[in-house]
């Protein structure tokens, strides 16, 4: 886009107190001899600047005399070319948008209208997933739900999502996010959570039992595709979207707010909650590697928790631990540590 007028911005930047006083002097006297105004150091340059800015004008009836220009009229005259160009650009933008509307309609009908696929679309590559998520987030008006199992979030992933998250929150859209407990021990994740929480995001954590998904305004959801690290399913069918949101809400109710600070009691509570989740997975017969993946922790950390669980149960082996857990039961005792009938019976 062109400038307001050649040199106008530069002239405006050169105006100072002297030009204001000179203009006021002319306004008060109505007409002033131009030679009088040009007298003195830099007087001629100041007069020329005000003449070019239409703040001073030559008298139409008395040669050599200068009169004050009306600043509002000067602004209209100086800005007219730029305003005309802006209006032309606006009309061009509107015409372009109107031409593209027909293509947008085709795009939405092909991608978002439930049909033979039952309102489910497979997105098999990462670029398509990112494009859809960005589009749905930009369109969201009320609420976005996200659940992100897998423990600590990668630095590059958080940086990529930060700008989008800020943009959504500043539009007044509510955002609720679920992480796993292990995300609380990642410095990068904690810093991200602290930042977005300050501008309105709500974040809770849970040990296990929720799927990777995003839901937008109860009208669309994106869920992870089985056996794919990058692919997703886009859900538009209302029943499927309701099912995904219902799963989120049940997990949200059981989750705890992401802590603003930590105490020894809080850390111990998180550790015990993670151990209970591991216990449930042990009962299901999962191996350590699968448990670690479900819990969003390293294999070594998982094995350390399993060993601690076996010690507390008094189990002589992993098989014995599984028997105690499944046959005798495990719960939290009043002190909040792993215990229950199994721990009591194991020592008999």
Automatic annotation (TrEMBL):
A GO MF term: DNA binding
GO biological process, one term: regulation of DNA-templated transcription
Residue ranges of every copy of the HTH luxR-type domain listed in the record: 276-325
Signal peptide: none
InterPro entries: Sig_transdc_resp-reg_C-effctor (IPR016032), TrmB-like (IPR051797), Tscrpt_reg_LuxR_C (IPR000792), WH-like_DNA-bd_sf (IPR036388)
UniProtKB keywords: DNA-binding
PANTHER family, sorted: HTH-TYPE TRANSCRIPTIONAL REGULATOR TRMBL2
Protein name: DNA-binding CsgD family transcriptional regulator/sugar-specific transcriptional regulator TrmB
